[in-house]
Amino acid sequence: xxxxxxxxxxxxxxxxxxxxxxxxxxxxxxxxxxxxxxxxxxxxxxxxxxxxxxxxxxxxxxxxxxxxxxxxxxxxxxxxxxxxxxxxxxxxxxxxxxxxxxxxxxxxxxxxxxxxxxxxxxxxxxxxxxxxxxxxxxxxxxxxxxxxxxxxxxxxxxxxxxxxxxxxxxxxxxxxxxxxxxxxxxxxxxxxxxxxxxxxxxxxxxxxxxxxxxxxxxxxxxxxxxxxxxxxxxxxxxxxxxxxxxxxxxxxxxxxxxxxxxxxxxxxxxxxxxxxxxxxxxxxxxxxxx
Length: 290
Fold this sequence. Notes:
The protein is mainly beta. It has helices at 14-32, 77-83, 174-177; strands at residues 47-52, 63-69, 86-89, 99-102, 111-115, 118-125, 134-137, 144-146, 150-156, 164-170, 179-186, 190-196, 201-209, 220-221, 224-230, 233-238, 241-248, 257-262, 269-270, 273-274, 277-279, 286-289. It folds into two domains: 45-177, no CATH class; 178-289, no CATH class. The strands form five sheets. It has a five-stranded mixed β-barrel. Strands 6-8-7-9-10 form a five-stranded mixed β-barrel. β19 (269-270) and β20 (273-274) form a beta hairpin.
């Protein structure tokens, strides 16, 4: 495009005219949108803007928990609608299921891009003996830990318990968050199981928390007290009456299968470690009179 002087003939190429029309249409569209002064950010690719409030500079592919919006609708509805962004903090228990993977280095208190949906490299750790293909938020750390729910691991570098790079998809696919397990032993509050790997049963035993109402740690409920003989038999007493109860159907330890879901907290602790898998009770087991 070239400017013309007063009195010179005006010749407008078709491409220039079309550009002017497009610009006018865009201005008209934004002018009619009275609820915002700018077009909201495009989040179709799962990328959002965050402010690093973790207290330190953060590297690309670090993980931060998502907390509050920077400007609320009450403070400025127009700004919220047009240029919203989220504060990102060092992961805490309140950030379970709400985290993002940084797509660029972000200095402390600065803004940058982070992914909440999609495929991205990220740093992960794998506890000894953990074989799952999922990873989730680790409280107080800027990496994911295998065995927690949140993302599906598509590929993983070697590194074990040391943070190392992996390629993950967020969120994890449903068939990766429900795990087929075989029961080998029944304990008071948990089951000892082996995982189906897709072609065979793993030789590694894993502890799976029982559903809350099937645990032996529950000694009273609704005026009834319970005394347990083992992980599947108890005596229930109410007033002067009592009865022997068993779990129905029973856990058959030579072939029964259960489906377990990874969760960040089960309330069942074994050898100082809180279990991260819980039986979803797909077979509808319950205590019943023997």
